[in-house]
């Protein structure tokens, strides 16, 4: 199959299988339409193929019963199938590129650019809302948070409804939610998990977040409770490595960092300090590189900087 089934037919149904967005690419899908009309929610996972918590959550969402659904739920549980099979970190093995930096893509570009273009032109136009499930890759530890296009008020509401305690208001970029924003679709990228490990608690947190959004959209019955633990909107501060070497973090996940605090050191194999990394602004540690080795130019961690700090 070269394209997905229609998202709206007016008939309760479940269609699943594989489609080929571009030559050499083959990804699984599940389209679940309820008997009652309603919005279309698109959920993707596995944009980064080793973020297993997100993939398992999406696989479980495919069991949604059409009988209790208004509208359509479209699930693409493993977008980067090649990366999933190769246990690749961040990139698609077909071209060595990070799909989540390729939007809006190119129809005649590399594999990741063609896949991004397919999502932009064949998937997002049929969506009323979009959720992209993630969770720290094999070399990344994180505390749960979401990211949304900062200029989109609708996306901010969806991020709060999803229920993770921190939402990062992001500037436009080449990621999936920026692509959705270009298509006029409110979008949230949810991060739960890390280090290639998936847990029942993490999977449940992502599944429940999607269910909360579905209740908010009127796709399934029931009220939406306030986000557990509240909701804080922050900006990202992402220090990067100036040099390659051994990374020794000085902070743990969720640590409250003050401006000027040491975040960690990069050393050579003999222990000499090559770079001392300090915080320019305050905020909690949302994610952190857990690999001992870091290459120059790579992100070391992400701080959630309070707005106005």
UniProtKB/TrEMBL annotation:
InterPro entries for the chain: AstE_AspA_cat (IPR055438), N-alpha-Ac-DABA-like (IPR043795), N-alpha-Ac-DABA_deacetylase (IPR053138)
Alphabetically ordered keywords of this record: Hydrolase, Metal-binding, Zinc
SUPFAM superfamilies associated with the record: Zn-dependent exopeptidases
The keyword DNA-binding is assigned to this record: no
Annotated Succinylglutamate desuccinylase/Aspartoacylase catalytic domain residues: 37-217
Cofactor(s) listed: Zn(2+)
GO molecular function: hydrolase activity, acting on carbon-nitrogen (but not peptide) bonds, in linear amides; hydrolase activity, acting on ester bonds; metal ion binding
Listed Gene3D superfamilies: Zn peptidases (3.40.630.10)
Protein's name in the database: Succinylglutamate desuccinylase
Organism: Lichenibacterium ramalinae
């Amino acid at each position: 199959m070269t394209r997905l089934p229609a998202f709206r037919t007016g008939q309760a149904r479940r269609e699943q299988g594989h489609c080929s967005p571009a030559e050499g690419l083959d990804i699984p899908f599940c389209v679940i339409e309820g008997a009652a009309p309603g919005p279309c929610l698109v959920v993707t996972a596995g944009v980064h193929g080793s973020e297993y918590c997100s993939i398992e959550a999406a696989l479980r969402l495919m069991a949604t019963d059409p009988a209790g659904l208004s509208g359509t739920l479209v699930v693409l549980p493993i977008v980067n199938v090649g990366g999933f099979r190769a246990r690749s970190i961040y990139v698609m093995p077909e071209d060595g590129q990070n799909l989540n930096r390729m939007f809006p893509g190119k129809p005649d570009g590399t594999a990741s650019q063609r896949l991004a273009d397919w999502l932009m032109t064949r998937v997002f136009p049929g969506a009323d809302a979009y959720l992209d499930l993630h969770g720290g890759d094999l070399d990344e530890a994180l505390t749960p948070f979401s990211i949304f296009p900062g200029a989109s008020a609708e996306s901010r509401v969806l991020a709060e409804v999803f229920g993770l305690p921190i939402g990062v208001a992001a500037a436009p970029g080449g990621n999936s939610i920026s692509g959705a924003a270009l298509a006029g679709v409110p979008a949230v990228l949810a991060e739960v998990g890390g280090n290639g490990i998936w847990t029942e608690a993490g999977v449940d947190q992502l599944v429940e977040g999607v269910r909360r959004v579905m209740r908010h959209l009127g796709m399934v019955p029931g009220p939406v409770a306030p986000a557990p633990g509240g909701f804080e909107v922050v900006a990202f501060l992402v220090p990067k490595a100036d040099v390659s070497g051994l990374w020794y973090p000085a902070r743990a996940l969720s640590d409250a960092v003050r401006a000027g605090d040491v975040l960690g050191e990069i050393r050579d194999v003999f222990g000499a300090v090559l770079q001392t990394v300090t915080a320019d602004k305050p905020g909690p540690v949302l994610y952190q590189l857990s690999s001992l080795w870091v290459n120059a130019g790579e992100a070391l961690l992400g701080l959630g900087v309070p707005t106005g700090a």
